[in-house]
């Protein structure tokens, strides 16, 4: 309901709940950091373990509802989600100040005073934590293999070679090595194939005056352009940047997409 309400008022919002699988949750966090949307509504999943330096405001609804999710420890953990941003703020919505709220605020104030004293003693100026935005797809892929030393390769892949043919030949060698139980050689060939495939994706491309593609390009300029594009891909957009917000990859958590689990009807005994 809260997600729908915010969406109706023009706020870019998503929600996160236990029905969303782990990978999609990580994609939701990634899109939030990239600026795809501005507000993430969480249910029991935003208390701990989320490192989001871009988070500038944490709002805790029903903070006075005593229980496990509104205990002193849970409140301190939720408040800590805004501690990575120097401008981070936390709002607790409550009708009364419960014991858990009072103790959580006292603990937060104690930690703040201790941190301020440490900063002043050592001349430290607080700054927002700067953390790269990782790609979950890359992490999942890397978890499926180990990297081995390529060693000395007696094959020289010259500029101008047909990389597709070279890769096809390497695949045959890799399969042959695997059939012969030469797993180290197969792993070395696998890593070489991945290196060549990555090189194919990064080949610079120039368009001549007639609109034809020319594979010859200035190496330094091509590398500089690719580096700039990679930086732009991982930098969150802002209204002052002039760039449109990224599209994002997460598909769950959109307003109006939640499906409620149907409750099974109780069996009648006669």
Termini separation? 40 Å
Compute the gyration radius: what is it?
26 Å
User: Mean pLDDT, nearest integer?
Assistant: 75
Architecture of the domain at 2-122, CATH level 2? 3-Layer(aba) Sandwich
Q: Segments where pLDDT lies below 50 for 5+ residues?
A: 136-148, 154-160, 205-221
CATH fold field value of the domain at 2-122: Rossmann fold
Helix-strand blueprint:
Elements lengths: L1 H7 L4 E4 L5 H13 L4 E4 L14 E4 L11 H8 L9 E4 L6 H24 L13 H7 L20 H17 L3 H19 L4 E2 L5 E2 L4 H15 L37
Parallel strand pairs: 1-2, 3-4
Antiparallel strand pairs: 5-6
Helix pairs in contact: 3-4, 6-7
Characterization of the model:
The chain has 270 residues and is mostly helical. Among the domains are: 2-122, P-loop containing nucleotide triphosphate hydrolases (Rossmann fold, 3-Layer(aba) Sandwich); 160-203. The chain is built from eight helices and six strands; from the N terminus they run αβαββαβααααββα. The chain has a two-stranded parallel ribbon. Helix 3 (72-79) crosses helix 4 and helix 6 (163-179) packs antiparallel against helix 7 (183-201). It is elongated, with a radius of gyration of 26 Å.
Characteristic terms for this protein:
Rossmann fold; 6 strands; mainly alpha; two-stranded parallel ribbon; 270 residues; elongated; single chain; 8 helices
